[in-house]
Structure formats: structure tokens, C-alpha cells
Amino acid sequence: MKTLLAIGDWKDFDTFKKVYKQRKFFRGSNIQVKATNYWSVIDQKLPEIKTKEIIIFLCFPFEYWDKYIEPKKYKGIYGNKSFYTKFIKFWKEIDSKLKNFYKNNKITYINHPKNLATDRDKEMTKKKVAKAGVLIPKTYNTRKVKDILKLLENGRKLFIKVRYGSMGKGITYLEKGRWMTNFRFRNGKILSRKSDYGWTFINITNKTRFLSEILKKDIIIEDAIDPLLIKGRKFDLRMYVFKDKVLYTYGRSNDEKAVTTNISQGAIGEKLSFEKTLPKKQLEFAKQSAIKAIKALGLNFGGVDMMLCADKKKAEFIEINAFPGFPRVRRYNLSRYFIKDIIDNYGDNIAIRKATIDDFDELFKLRLMSKKEELKYSNTLKPITKSKHYYREYLQFDLTKPDRILFVAEDRNKIVGAILAKFFTPLRISRYHKEGKGHISNLFVDKEHRKKGVAENLVKSALEWLKSNKVPHVSLEIHMDNKAAIKLYDKMGFRHFTVKMVKEV
Fold first, then answer.
1. What is 260-276 written as a DSSP string?
2. CA–CA gap between residue 147 and residue 125 (Å, rounded)
3. Which of 230, 251, 378, 447 would bridge with 274, disulfide CB 3.0–4.6 Å?
4. What CATH number should be reported for the domain whose range is 350-491?
């Protein structure tokens, strides 16, 4: 058994809350889920976790960020270097605190804290992804007004972005005869919004004083991408990448003359069918580029923004977000597929499901294995060779009767464990005569898959089924020498109730 520890803030309705609410999709795996916040990490008041291995999913620390990194009264303009250095320091502290508290556990990060601030440095990010073979817009290192004006005169279209920003904030767009920014400029000073909202663009065409001031800040200067237009609209693609796979592509489109394709600045989210309107080879080029970009930053999961070029062949990189907000569940339940990939990559790939008649052959082999092992504890059973036909009949019965169910554990389409649950009406003298009683038996897991939480998950599935059938009481029988099974049932809250005694006469 392993534990996924999700860390974030409950105000993070875009990621942390959505993933935690969808935790039901972990059922049947060997991963249990717990959640906490960053203040608990800092104060060392974390939940106790008994599993040996912990998988940690780190979400954006909104409360800490708003209090210590980007408070309403921060100094300087948005996206300055202090944001970045404070963020790096925060993640070092979180890593240290987690490793200290869970020093007896094995920690596996989905995204390691040391890599979670890198995407905030746009210049470093561009260098890393370019080195990985991803196409990026051309960068300009000049900080002279006359050089910028010359580039514009020669027909270049430029973006000036704060180096350490995100969310489409702190952007200036320049082309000959049209300058736009979502900063404000008063009395020779560049001003920032003290909020994530309201970063609308204003016209500052030919205001060289503004240009002179912005060039003194922590910025990057790059070519604007010549975009492919669909129905006269420009768009980008937010690609949610997990390791070697693009889980979901979210198209965001805006008017051709709009400065950006950010939702916060007037763009709209396109439907799932939008992807089908795009050139297939160009889309695949963008997806492979997004996967390369995530790897280049040492991440396993993130959102990569790509823009398809007007040539209908290439796609260029815009930016990476290590904390991409998940789409609305009604649009696409990304959490479900994200969880599935967590199970596939960090779990033991074992799923619990109801058995069907199609499983008969595999189940029969498994039952013979279990009976062979049962012979170690009991000398009352006939040899397997003389009982096969009976076990075949019993299995057929168990798979077809409505008062019982078989659950199987499946690893990559191979059945590796099973359990039988059934309910019945006890004698009239029983206090459970009206409600009925439940019974579980035939629990077995093959040797290769033991001590991985498979048996426990099979028992849980059986108990959930009995509970769904309004059964208030469950019993089982176990041989007193089967210490491993007794330990499991003790752990799961079963009480020692009767002792069955035998004697040869």
C-alpha cells in the first residue's frame, strides 16, 4: 500500500480541490489519499502516514504566495526577481520539512520542489526547452530604445514580458503604429495591478518614455509568433502533460488583433472538438514539443502553452506552468485521467473489479492454487487431483448466483487475486434474521503480488458490496496457523469471535 499526499490550499479550486474531490478514482488501487496544507508542513503538523512509500503531489501555495511573495503592498513592479528568489527559498523549506517529518518513509514527488520555481524564470525556461529541441521565439538582448524602434521599423512584432511573471500579467506588445501594455504608466512610473484580475491592455503607442522605463526592468524581449488562424481567430493550446503523454489539449482563442490568448484577457475556451479542426501533423508536432519541454524542466506534470505557426507545419513554445489549473469537470474531467496515470506510474497497476463468467478459466487456476496452499493448514481436504470437478462446479455457482459476488485483482489484464462475498438469511433465533448476514471467503493473492495491499483492497471491495446490500454483520473463517491472514483481518477491525475445534475419533 502507498499513500498519495496532496498538499495545497482549499481556496485552490482549480487543482487541489478538484483532484481531492475526485479521489474516488483511486478505489481499487493500492494508493490511499490524504490531504494537507502548506502551513501544516511548515509547522510540522502533518498527518501520520503508516505506508512505507509516500507519493507527494504539490499544488500552488496560494495563501503563502499572497502573504509573503506577492502581498498587496509588495515593492517594485510585478514579476521582479524577488518573486523568484522567495519562491525558490519556499520550496527548499518545504522539501526540508517534508523529509524531516517523514524521515522513516520513502518520498516520491510527482514534481520535485527543486524544479517548481524554474518556470517562473522565463529566460532560463526558454534556454532549457530550446536545448531540448523545442522551437522558441527569437530572443533579443538589447535594452536600448533605439534598437527596439529599429526592429519595429523593420517590421518586427515584439513582446516584452516580465522575466519572473505568470498568468499573462506584465506584458507589453509592440509593432509599428501599435503599442499595448497591461501595466499602467503615470508620472513616469510603471504601475502594477495588486491583483490577479484587471490586467487589461491599454494603448501606449509611441510612448518612448514608457519603453525606456520598461527596458530597465527584469524582462525578456522576443518575437511575436506568426499564428495559424482558425475562422479568423488566433489561438494557443494548453497541453496538460504527464510524463510521456499529453492528457488533454485545451484550445483558447481570441480575436486576431488581441494581444494574448489568455482566458483572463478575453480569450474563450474552445470545445473538445476544436482539436479536430487542426492540422494533424502540426498538432502532433506541438504535442511532442510539449512533452520535451516538460522533461527539460525536470517535471513530470505541467501545462505547456504552444502556438501553431501560420506555415501549418511548426509550433512554437510560449511558456510552461508547473501548476496548471484543471478545466471544469463538465468540460473535461482531467482529474480522472490524471489519477489513472498516477496509479499506472506510481501504483502497482493493480485494479479491483467484479468478476464475470469470462474470467472463469483464470479464476479456476487461481482457485486451485489457493486450495493447494490451503492443504498446508488442513488435512481434511482431498487431494486437488480428486477434487477438481467439484471446484469447477463451485466456481460456476459463485459466478452465477445473485446472492454472491467474486471480486478479482487484475495486474495488466492478468488476474492475480480474488475474494468471494455473499449474504444469506440466518436462523430465526439470530438477531440478524431480518437484515441478513454476510460472509467472505476464498481470499487469495498470488505470491508475486503479496505485501502490496492487494488482499486488503479485495476485502474492502467485498465489504463495500455487502454494505451496499444493507448487510450489517460480516463473518469469515480462517485457519489459526494462517498468521498473515489473521494479521490482515485484525488490522481491518475483525474481532476473534468463536473457536472451531476438531478431534479425530
1. ---GGGT-EEPPGGGGG
2. 25
3. 251
4. 3.40.630.30
Cα angle for residues 222, 226, 230 (degrees, 5° grid): 140
Q: Are 44 and 15 in contact (CB under 8 A)?
A: no
User: Average model confidence (pLDDT) for the chain?
Assistant: 93
Domain 226-322 matching CATH 1.20.1640.10: the answer reads: no
**CB of 191 closer than 8 Å to CB of 199:** no
Grid coordinates representing 403 are 446472492
- Alpha carbon 358 to chain centroid, angstroms: 33
Q: In this structure, which long-range contacts are made by residues 194-198, counting pairs with CB atoms below 8 Å and at least 24 apart in sequence?
A: 194/72, 194/73, 194/74, 196/167, 196/169, 196/264, 197/264
Give percent of the chain above pLDDT 70. Answer: 100
Please enumerate in sequence order all residues whose Cβ is within 8 A of that of 46, keeping only pairs 6 or more positions apart, or say none. Answer: 36, 40, 98, 101, 102
Domain limits of the chain? 2-116, 139-223, 226-322, 350-491
**Cα–Cα dist 203/360, whole Å:** 72
At residue 199, the pLDDT reads 92
Of the candidate ranges 148-162, 211-225, 440-454, the one whose mean pLDDT is the lowest: 440-454
- Where residue 161 falls (left for φ over 0; alpha for ψ -120 to 50; beta otherwise) is beta
Cβ-proximal residues to 253 (8 Å cutoff; 6+ apart), any chain: 230, 233, 234, 235, 261, 267, 268, 270, 274
User: Average pLDDT, stretch 82-87?
Assistant: 94
* Residue (of 331, 395, 320) closest to 357 by Cα position: 395
Domain 2-116 has CATH 1.10.10: no
**Half-sphere exposure of residue 501: CA atoms within 13 angstroms, side-chain side:** 3
Packing angle of the helix pair 122-131, 280-296 (nearest 10 deg) = 110
Amino acid at 99: K
